[in-house]
Specification:
Elements (H helix, E strand, L loop, with lengths): L2 H28 L17 H6 L1 H12 L8 H4 L12 E8 L2 E2 L1 H6 L1 H7 L5 E9 L4 E5 L6 E9 L7 E5 L2 E3 L7 E3 L5 E5 L5 E9 L6 H13 L2 H21 L5
Antiparallel strand pairs: 1-2, 1-3, 3-10, 4-9, 5-8, 5-10, 6-7, 6-9
Helix pairs in contact: 1-7
Length: 253
């Protein structure tokens, strides 16, 4: 497929997605098995305690990866849909899973984290999300209620005013080792005004849905995975992982 055709298909899919997003989200909210709050109550997801028990293991693997910046490129270089909100190099990342597929070379560097996140039902993405000092992420919203975000804080300093997130008008801080799970279709923004990097494990997973919401949500994700846009992102993630290994001179353990 030529680049021009792929670009046209990608733009057409994005336009179609924008047209159906609001009516689709209304249906998904109606058939959600976990309700439709901006932030979910602690205990809503029975796998979250597993992440919290293992947070120090996950943190240690993240620190080992971040010891060499070659492994953590700016997010905007890998994910085109983030370029509108990540306009500089402050938001950096290390993908283990991205858009429904494992990034094999990166998974080799953090085997325990990979094993842990792969127990999460409906796993879509898992990556170390790094906000260097001075990061400001403007208000935005996510793609679809099919997708839910989980933050597992690994390295956070300061209170919510200095390093925090605002979701649907409410401000939250992060407590290391305690999950914050939220619906990112609600408007949200984040900031790090401290002099230290903020590191979380960011997991995206499928919202539990009743029929027919499950059918519609699955169809939307299937269409997204098969789009030229996501295939290009998969290629970019794999290529960046190889470059990171080459630049750091890493050897799989």
């Amino acid at each position: 497929m030529s680049g021009r055709i792929k670009h046209a298909l990608g733009r057409g899919l994005m336009a179609f997605g924008r047209r159906i997003r609001k009516p689709l989200d209304r249906v998904l909210a109606r058939y959600s098995r976990v309700g439709n709050p901006p932030v979910f109550d602690h205990g809503t997801f029975d796998w979250a305690p597993m992440l919290e028990r293992e947070w120090e293991t996950i943190r240690d693997e993240a620190r080992a990866v971040m010891a060499d910046e070659a492994y953590t490129p700016p997010l905007r270089e890998l994910s085109p849909d983030h370029r509108g909100i990540a306009k500089d190099d402050h938001w950096r990342c290390f993908f283990i899973w991205g858009y429904g597929a494992r990034v094999a070379r990166n998974a080799e560097l953090c085997p325990r984290t990979t094993e842990i996140v792969e127990r999460i039902p409906g796993l879509l993405s898992a990556f170390y999300s790094i906000h260097t000092p001075g990061t400001v992420i403007p208000e935005h919203r996510g793609v679809s209620k099919t997708i839910v975000n989980c933050h597992l804080p690994l390295d956070v300093t300061g209170g919510a005013e200095d390093c925090g997130i605002r979701i649907a008008g409410e401000t939250y801080g992060w407590d290391e080792g305690q999950t914050l799970i939220f619906d990112d279709t609600y408007r949200h923004e984040a900031w790090n005004h401290t002099d230290r990097r903020r590191v979380i494990l960011l997991v995206q997973f499928q919202r539990p849905l009743r029929f027919p919401g499950s059918l519609l949500g699955g169809a939307f994700l299937g269409l997204l995975r098969r789009s030229p846009f996501v295939r290009d992102v998969h290629d970019a993630l794999a290529a960046e992982a190889e470059r990171g290994h080459a630049a750091a001179g890493a050897r799989p353990s």
